[in-house]
UniProtKB/TrEMBL annotation:
Protein name, UniProt field: AraC family transcriptional regulator
Domain HTH araC/xylS-type: 229-330
Transcription as UniProt keyword: yes
Entry-linked SUPFAM superfamilies: Homeodomain-like
GO cellular component, one term: cytosol
Source organism phylogeny: Bacteria, Pseudomonadati, Pseudomonadota, Gammaproteobacteria, Pseudomonadales
Record keywords, A-Z: DNA-binding, Transcription, Transcription regulation
Domain of life: Bacteria
One Gene Ontology MF term: DNA-binding transcription factor activity
Pfam family, one: Arabinose_bd
Length: 333
């Protein structure tokens, strides 16, 4: 999962507030060794740690944890102080409630609430006070509160459903990594639903572990993928990183205790295919190796199962809009 990459949409959306305030976006990206081409190439991707650094840089430059997308600034350190106010609460429900009260002290802040629905509960966000055309801050806040809650109780809170007030965006396929659950758009409210039993769970963290947690959070919470138990994530785990010895679809179907026909149908329903999953995994592994290893591009091509480097060059250009050499050159700049 750590090789998952971040789509260019989220890079552009994260920079929207800085752009609106007249900052030099190209210079900001260059300072982070991120190709400026990512702004104009919908297929471009960046590594998760690059996205973490980007978020942190935007917060520092704007002096605003809302990245210029809220009605008022949220000064750096606000999220950390909210965490310190809730870390000694006995249960997740009390911790989240205290965090919501803390942010309620600030005028025009986005508002969270908990709404019970039988055996489940909705964590809902009122984003009416946001200046957030891409819904990036709204999605980020949902993600942060969900993953913060999971960290506090020491286990992943499995989502049952995610709903959004806006229409389904063109990049909705990326939501499989952000909100691994059935999703609905053009809904009455924006929120996440999960089993209510999580609210009664005790906090397993303290100020010592919180200090370590806050070194890179909440930026790394946004960059870290979470495919949960979705079919595509299960298949990626079964495929693994050895592209030269990937199991075929029939073998994967057996491991998932289903038939190849059923597996194909479920993938079609998710808007994907077995070949597309393999291509996306190869793409993410390529970006992973190009950004980290000293391997020659030819060696990377062989590891990814390409018989010729030229085939790898064509595939990478198709996936990202950049050649492997151009991508690596900018990482090393």
């Amino acid at each position: 999962m750590r090789e998952r990459t971040i789509a260019s949409h989220f890079v552009c959306a994260a920079l929207r507030g800085a752009e609106q305030q007249g900052l030099d976006i190209v210079a900001l990206l260059a300072g982070l060794n991120i190709q400026p081409a990512v702004l104009n190439e919908p297929r471009a991707r960046i590594a998760p740690e690059q996205f973490t650094r980007l978020m942190q840089r935007v917060w520092d430059v704007l002096v605003d944890e809302y990245m210029g997308l809220g009605r008022q600034r949220s000064k750096p350190g606000t999220f950390a102080m909210a965490c310190y106010t809730l870390i000694h609460c006995p249960t997740l429900e009390k911790a989240w409630t205290r965090g919501m009260l803390f942010y309620g002290l600030f005028p025009d802040a986005p508002t969270f609430s908990l709404r019970r629905d039988g055996d489940s509960v909705w964590l809902e966000l009122d984003d009416s006070n946001l200046r957030d055309p891409d819904h990036f801050l709204a999605e980020s806040l949902l993600l942060i509160w969900h993953r913060l809650g999971s960290w506090l109780i020491g286990q992943r809170i499995r989502l049952l459903e995610a709903r959004f007030r806006y229409a389904e965006p063109a990049h909705s396929a990326e939501y499989d990594l952000l909100f691994p659950a059935p999703r609905g758009f053009a809904a009455e409210r924006t929120g996440l639903r999960f089993q209510a039993r999580y609210l009664d769970m005790p906090l397993l963290q303290d100020e010592r572990t919180l200090k370590q947690f806050l070194k890179n959070s909440p930026a790394d919470l946004l960059a870290r993928p979470d495919g949960g138990d979705s079919l595509t994530s299960q298949i990626r785990r079964l495929l693994g990183r050895d592209c030269n010895h990937w199991p075929d679809l029939e073998s994967v179907a057996r491991q998932l205790h289903t038939s190849p026909q059923t597996l194909r149908r479920h993938l079609r329903e998710e808007g994907s295919s077995f070949q597309e999953l393999k291509d996306h995994l190869r793409r993410d592994l390529a970006i992973y190796h190009l950004g980290r290893d000293n391997l020659a591009i030819q060696d990377i091509a062989e590891q990814l199962g390409f018989s010729e480097p030229s085939a790898f060059h064509r595939a990478f250009k198709k996936w990202t809009g950049l050649t492997p050499g151009a991508y690596r050159a900018h990482q090393d700049a």
